[in-house]
Amino acid sequence: MFSCDFSKICHLIILISGLLLFPNSVSIAQTTADTSSLATQPQHISLQPYRIRIDIAYAPESRLSQENRQQIQQQLKQIIDRSIGEKWILTDTKIKKSSPLNSLGIYENNWLPLASGKGLQRLNSEDILKRYPNHPFDKLFLISIEQDGIGYLISGREFDSYSRQLSPLSTRKTFAKPFLSEIILESLRDLFSAVVTIDSVNGNQVIVSEQASQYPPPDPSMGTLQKNFYFIPFFRYLNRDREVKSIQFIPWTYLVLEEINRKYATCLISSGLRGVLNGSRRRVETFAIRVKTKYPETKLSLIPRGTSFQTSAGIKVQISPLDPQQVRQRQREAKKQKELKKSPPPESQDYITGEFLTNRSGTITLQADSQHPLIWLYVRSGKALVANVPYIPGINREINIQIPDDRIRLSVEGELAVLNGELIEAVASLSMKMSRIRKWAKNSDWKKVDAGIGELESGISPKQIFDDKLNVIQVSAVEAAQAQNNRSAQSRIASLCRETSGRIERFLDPTGIIDLKTEINDLKQLQKKDPNRRKSK
Hints:
By secondary structure, the chain is α+β, with helices and mostly antiparallel strands.
């Protein structure tokens, strides 16, 4: 027992002696640990250059020898170094070069089945992921050179590693073989799409950071962000090993670049959804990629939600540069002006710059506008607004908008129109009967008066009849909307039925018959008091 305690005491004495002799040893060890942990932390995205790989496919009929191909690739690398500088890297010593597929740089593409623009067009993202499972690059540019008459056709597509999507095909032509490297660089400039991370969200503003923004290129046109650039945000869902499990693009949402400095940039959110970027998400990375118009027009199709065979023909699509909040602000100002002037101003929709009606297939064509790329689409079925989303025509060849199935509401409107017609006839018939009773009372024909009042009171109340009919229409329509989980249709049906119910209450109020009976009794009393009154008349 004593020996054990004595050994502990000796150990404690040695520790105290070490602290007295080397008082800074603990701080030095702590500093060393902090330095090593900082060294292992990843750099900020603004300090991370784009890792680039360029695969060039040469068509057999392009008449380019092996020497020509090596010269093109060497010249291209020199031009990239001069124009883009440190923003792009074509070599990375950290990558284990066990295979050419794991390397950065410029290579000849020998795996593309068809070395042409058509061959590139057939590729999809899954093909790239299978070919490069490790994808050590951030950007992969696929270029093809083929013969085009007496010149050359250069086609290209970009594969972005963050979003794992392929860009649309870009083509350029040249007639000079010595300038092929320069034309390829121009194609790379058109294909390149900057990537930013979303750091914070505050209302309709977001703070973003661009990759490699700390390395401004010598040529400002090569990937430098500018005001009014547009980005599409997307989520990268990670597993526990920080591997990408899935990627989800946020529909009908764009970031518009407003201000930019060396490290951060401020963007405005333009979205048809609410709060899509708010809140924190576990193991989720939020990025955004720049989008540009690639096509002269876009085919827009309206598809009823929940159906695959129905089309939305005859739907009105209005185009406006203003978002819904700005439109509501204008409407409030117009309402104030109306109250001040005490006269209804003429109805105007000066915020609408274009209007279309969908054809039998439920489609329209939107033209791209380089001056005002972003527009708002207001989709209306009759007077009801069924969708309002932002869009940039020209970034897709075709796109679909799912809108609520409005057939139930349209059916209710038709049934209510018939009911309102019957209501008008019933009100006219009731007014005619009451007018006849008043005429008989003035002529003191009390037998006909009593018979007429008895007829009014003997039948079922007209108000009850129309209330029952309205209730049947509303209940059946609401049940159909609930079966489709269509909440917007439920609210519109309730609004339409409330309006009709108000008309029934107003024109078929039973107090009208009670007032008529009171009026008839007053006439009877007057005639009893003055029996010669009728004769004098």
